[in-house]
Specification:
Shape: globular
Distance between the termini: 51 Å
Bound molecules: pyridoxal-5'-phosphate
Strand content: 15-25%
Largest sheet: 7 strands, mixed
Radius of gyration: 21 Å
Order of helices and strands: HHEHEHEHEHEHEEHHHEHEHEEHEH
Mean pLDDT: 96
Strand order of the largest sheet: 1-7-6-5-4-2-3
Low-confidence stretches: none
Number of strands: 12
């Protein structure tokens, strides 16, 4: 089956006795044993639940993995994956990534004795130069948040394999519709399913997917022990969202290409960060490893006053955190996603007080551009 079909029919074989077409919400914490020492496939919903199992099979199929685990949020997935390691583990991670992941690594994992080097994981030589005997993993987001840096997954996988490291890729921004890290050699893919997979800004979710059976077992052990599992109703919503993932991504990407071009043409915009520009440093790598550029754009306005003006005046775009849904959102990384990053470091990276990030939705493109146009007027 091709991807669009998998989104609907990846786990068709698990029909229940009623022949329900959509996956029923199996709202049961526990399951009755058939006899002494004989349990059905399910025993307790922290370990596994029929609704969740269905969703996990779909996500595993989309990412091309042997197993997927559905977590209560993206951060729950990432936190659990990080527990695969033990101090004094050393991890080489993207220097541009989701603020919550940075907070986890720096403030929680580091306190547990993990060491991190944060670099542009697009710079393969730099990554190579940092590997030492304690190094256990490379962790990357590509494209990264919010600067849209691109990393070559196959090249990172090669050096990970040569050095016995795990390569973990956060595939939230492009989704498996556009990019399949496991096929490019990654060991684990993580997701904030809250974003494009769910796609409707209505529920939180997270995933960890692997193509390696032994890793899958270790992750399942951590999963059932920590218990940050996704509830049946949320599994249903995410699965329903996935059915339209390809349609949404196509529309979102087409809209984003137009908006990026429009922003670049504005004299009040200093810089536009968008992976789909032919002159983007990672453009060739993107073309090689992904089939689309997605819906994320960041830009630096000429002043803080203009940035605040835009946030105040948008009507179609909603000034809100998060991304990946059908509604277009605009956010202020300085105050939201990157509020925990020290100011000096933020500014040095270009995430200034005039820097905004857009998650393009599926609205009519002219309405989106008209909205930006009026929001730019001081
Ligand atoms: C939102 C996000 C996360 C965290 O996911 P939650 O579902 O909010 O916990 C991780 N990585 C990326 C790239 C994200 O955008």
């Amino acid at each position: 089956m091709k991807f669009e079909t998998l989104c609907l029919h990846a786990d068709n074989n698990k029909k229940d006795e009623w022949g329900t077409l959509t996956t029923p919400i199996c709202q049961s914490a526990t399951f009755v044993h058939k006899g002494v020492g004989v349990s059905s496939e399910y025993s307790y919903s922290r370990l596994s639940n029929p609704t969740r199992a269905h969703l996990e099979n779909v996500v595993a199929a989309l990412e091309g993995g042997v197993a997927a685990l559905a977590f209560s949020s993206g951060m729950a997935a990432i936190s659990t994956v990080m527990k695969l390691f033990k101090a004094p583990a050393h991890i080489i991670a993207s220097d541009d990534m989701y603020g919550g992941s940075l907070r986890l690594f720096r403030n929680v994992n580091a306190a547990d004795g993990y060491a991190f080097d944060f670099v542009d994981t697009g710079d393969i030589e730099k990554v190579k130069s940092l590997i030492r005997k304690e190094t256990v993993a490379i962790y990357c987001e590509t494209p990264s948040n919010p600067l849209m840096q691109v990393s070559d997954i196959a090249a990172l996988s090669k050096i990970a394999k040569e050095n016995g490291l795990l390569l973990i890729v956060d595939n939230t921004f492009l989704t498996p519709y556009y990019q399949r890290p496991l096929a490019l050699g990654a060991d684990i893919v993580v997701h904030s399913g809250t974003k494009y997979l769910g796609g409707h800004n209505d529920t939180l979710a997270g995933f960890a997917v692997t193509g390696n059976k032994e890793l899958a077992e270790r992750l399942l052990y951590l999963y059932k022990t920590f218990g940050a599992c996704l509830a049946p109703m949320d599994c249903f919503l995410i699965e329903r969202g996935i059915k339209t993932l390809p349609l949404r991504m196509d529309r979102i990407s087409a809209n984003a290409a137009e908006i990026a071009k429009w922003l670049r043409g504005r004299k009040e915009v200093k810089k536009v960060y968008y992976a789909g520009f032919a002159d983007h440093a990672g453009y060739e790598v993107s073309k090689k490893q992904a089939t689309g550029f997605g819906g994320m754009i960041s830009f630096e306005a000429e002043s803080r006053a203009l940035a605040e003006n835009i946030l105040k005046k948008v009507k179609v775009f909603q000034y809100a955190e998060s991304l990946g849904g059908v509604e277009s959102l605009i956010t202020y990384p300085m105050l939201q996603t990157h509020a925990d990053v020290p100011e000096k470091e933020r500014n040095a990276r270009g995430i200034t007080d005039a820097f905004l990030r857009i998650s393009v939705g599926i609205e009519n493109i002219q309405d989106l551009i008209d909205d930006l146009k009026q929001a730019f007027e001081l």
